[in-house]
Amino acid sequence: MLRLLGIFATVLCAIATAVLTWPSFFRVDQLYPIAQIVSFRGVLLIAFAVAVVIALLLGMARPMRAFALSLALVFGVAVVANAAIMISRGLGTEALPAKTDTGVRVMTWNTSGEATAPEAVAKIAVAMDVEIVTLPETTIETGEEVAVAMRELGHPMWVHHAEYGVDGWDARSTTLLISPDLGDYSVIQSSADGSSNTSTVPSAVAMPVDGSGPIVVAVHAVAPRPSYMQHWRDDLRWLADQCGDANVIMAGDFNATLDHMGELGTDGGALGLCHDSAADTGNGSVGTWSTEIPALLGAPIDHVMASSHWRATGSLVLEAMGGSTSDHRPLVVQLEPVG
Fold first, then answer.
1. H or E element in which residue 106 lies
2. DSSP string covering 275-312
3. Which of 122, 164, 248, 269 could make an SS bond with 265 (beta carbons 3.0 to 4.6 A apart)?
């Protein structure tokens, strides 16, 4: 009887580790609480490694040896699988490639409202020589201050935004800065008035006025809190729909990792037709949230994504944040046009 219980427990553990390692395969990647757990793959890997050690220690006791060694094997496979996934997505890079005349650099940073001074955003954006900056949880007033500071540093930007009312909560506003070098842009009406947008906190969809540049989407999806799970799922589907064109650049706080997007890609894309630039350039496993824990243990929920007109050639998750107390790290990506 005890042997049967041991086999049953081992099978349950094997199923649980498989679900947490490949949640999209089992179509549970957007279900509570699995969605929250798999956001932290680095933490999950460490938990499985600790489980291996505990199982091996239990295996020193003869009556439990077979059961404990079986568990050690299950958890060991989970460690290897999770490590392989993290390595394949990238554990971090230290520099961007040299700037080119045809390339576009994009920075996204959830500033957490007043936690980040406009001057800090401006200095980092100018130092990174970016053409597009997306700033979730940033008001239009703050965005204008960022643009003024960037102009004074010789790097002018146009400012756009979308907001859901003014109620003192900075998350109700998302700001987008675009270099005049990319041409004139305008936020589409359905994005500005919220008739077609993310559910709870706004995203901004900006179209080139002359029709020649990329569609730029400044993203902010709601966090997958228990009471907002359906809103979160709806937001991710809406974002996937925005990436249905070959010339789209999306950047912002998706409040989702690649593990939550298994059913949302099209024609090989991670989300709609868009590919994840950080994963393509060696930073896909580097957490952008939360700054309170090491990056490789954090959740990579801030992304820069682009469709087939663009190819990512480099990326950086920045640790130095100019004195900001935001709980998100900035992400910078270099894109080059294909063909």
1. strand 104-108
2. EEHHHHTT-TTS--B-TTS-GGGSB--EEEEE-TTEEE
3. 269
- The pLDDT of 241-255, averaged and rounded, is 97
Which tokens is 303 given? Answer: 């992304």
pLDDT tens per residue, range 146-189: 999 999 999 999 999 999 976 667 889 999 999 999 999 999 99
What 3-state DSSP class applies to 92?
coil
Distance CA 122, CA 142 (A): 11
Phi, psi of 301 (to 5 degrees): -105, -10
The 8-class DSSP code of residue 173 comes to E
Q: Are 137 and 110 in contact (CB under 8 A)?
A: yes
Distance CA 99, CA 284 (A): 21
Question: Which of helix, strand or coil describes residue 331?
Answer: strand
For residue 251, the cross-strand partners are 218, 304
- Contact 119/127 with Cβ under 8 angstroms? no
Q: Which residues contact 11 (CB under 8 A, 6 or more apart)?
A: none
CA neighbor of 325 nearest in space, from 17, 122, 115, 144:
115
pLDDT for residue 2 = 64
Q: List beta partners, residue 299.
A: 289
Q: Give Cα separations from 16 to 23, 34, 35 (angstroms).
A: 10, 10, 14
Q: What are phi and psi for residue 187, nearest 5 degrees?
A: -70, 130
CB environment 48-76: b (16+ within 10 A), e (fewer): bbebbeebeebbeeeeeeebbebbbebbb
Q: Measuring CA to CA, which residue among 134, 101, 104 is closest to residue 333?
A: 104
Yes or no: say if 140 and 173 are a contact pair by the CB < 8 Å rule: yes
